[in-house]
Structure prediction request, 175 residues.
Amino acid sequence: MRIGVLSDSHGLLRPEVVAAFEGVDHILHGGDIGGEGVLTELRALAPVTAVAGNVDGFRCGDARETARIELGGVRFFLTHILDRPHRPRSEVAAELRREPADVVVFGHSHLPHDEVVAGVRFFNPASAGPRRFDYPVSVGIFEVKRGRLAGARFVALDARSGPALARHMNQLSNR
Prediction:
């Protein structure tokens, strides 16, 4: 099973996102969608599970502040604002204690992140929308096999974003 992961589209669905998500089985959106039109376009590609972000007023279509889904035996928890993987917001920490997840997908910072903390993978695909500062414009792809996350990778959506991914990766653990 292939899962496309994006966040912070801010109303823009780039053609490069559509190309990167060709053939995915499901799409996860980590918030700041920027309008129901983005969800409609994504749903033309595959089923979508999304959370709304602060730009969306934490409501966008059926997206709310958090979401959970199990795909191929892997439990996903989505939230837009995490803070940091080693120190998540108290609401997020409480939700994960109440019902554990294998993977937490988040956005907000526009910074790429892929780290396992206490057995949970925290993944921020960076921003798929308008460029911000020198941050990358990218999405993620998860591969799920035999009930586990078998792989996660970032897809840079333009030439500048490859080096930016390396430069900004996992900065949320360093702050």
User: Anything to note?
Assistant: The helical segments are 15-20, 36-43, 90-98, 161-168. The first helix runs from residue 15 to 20. Residues 45 and 104 are 22 Å apart (CA to CA). The mean pLDDT is 96.
